[in-house]
Amino acid sequence: METKLNDSGQKLPGKQYIYFRIGTQYFKEVMQPLISGEEAPKLVPWSAEAIRLDHGKEFLENEVKKLDGFCLIPGHLDYQRIYQNFYNRYHPFRYVASKGNEPVRTLLFLNHIFGNQLYLGIDYLKLLLQNPVQQLPILCLVSSERATGKSTFLNWLKAIFGENMTINSNENFQSAFNADWVTKLIIAVEEALLNKKEDSERFKNLSTAKYSKLESKGVDRMEVEFFGKFILCSNNEENFIYVDKPEVRYWVRKIPVLESCETDMLAKLEAEIPNFLSFLLERPFSTERRTRMWFTPKQIYTPALGRLKASNQNRLENEIAQAAITIIDNMEDDAGDLQFCLSDAQSWLKSRGIRSNDSMAIKRILQNEWGLKPQSNSIRYAKWQFSSDGTIYFIQGKGRFYTITKKRLENLLFSDAADASDVTE
Are 29 and 43 in contact (CB under 8 A)? Predict the structure, then answer.
């Protein structure tokens, strides 16, 4: 039996059907049955003739809600199905917060997922509930081991946010068509393996975008407001996605194996959802908005992120930096900063067993990754080299050299380790 909803998406007794004329098209809102035994409202196209045949001409003229069009306004605590005479495509929130027993099992599970960053994790969930348009970091749950609870976490969030969340595969995200996920609050990717740089750029751009292009097969592209949050889960800890050193939009957590694996864990977590929502609403934020993504890079830093960045680091970049800092460590204290030309870097790589004739790749590292600029004119400098037995010496050279300090090199090589010195997982 279909149930009427009011403008706030709440069930009301009365007529069995709701019909809408949205723009110039007619629709019927039905309650679609779910495997769980629950129902979810679904808008399906209907014809004016079918409505007239079923209910009569007077019903068609007087009982069909006439709206101007569609909109997408996310909201959970103050949801409105009809928003300023537009039909809201954001789906109603399924649950009502209910005071009762403390959600002990849920908090234990969240402690397993977020570890010593539990207070950040709870703030993250509170923001999803209370402020769905707030931009948030890309949450990544990784572990090479099985039975860690990553999938359970996604399915639990799906139970809470229902049709406003989607769980995709790599192929779904890489497809040219995005109509099935671009309007969702949470876009999860299970078994994520998106290690092409263009995949990472797409995630990064969308995580801070206010608008995106909705693309459906056979339909013109349409600009929509974007408020989606990405959650990636992967069994590949070190290269499931490309992340470069300066990147601050990823929150990567390594998830340990569950101490006890209960077959009905998800059902028990779902049973606590109303109590957990009450807990979220009553608990004040433990953090305040410090960046456009709420949290600071230092707050969400983990050793797992450091390892991910290190594994993605260009090998040429690492080898050049290692050679340069070896030279600086052997320079006299008053020798000044290190000066070198492109050909010097190639020579250093050769001495370390790497033959690189791609001078453009080295140039991109020095200028794009390290932000160095060569001298405008060719002038003399101290040219440092490695001999065949590994000793370091210098001769007079001439060229348009780059200059780099020891501190800058150490930041390039060890910044992640320094950031992680007081962080545990």
Answer: yes
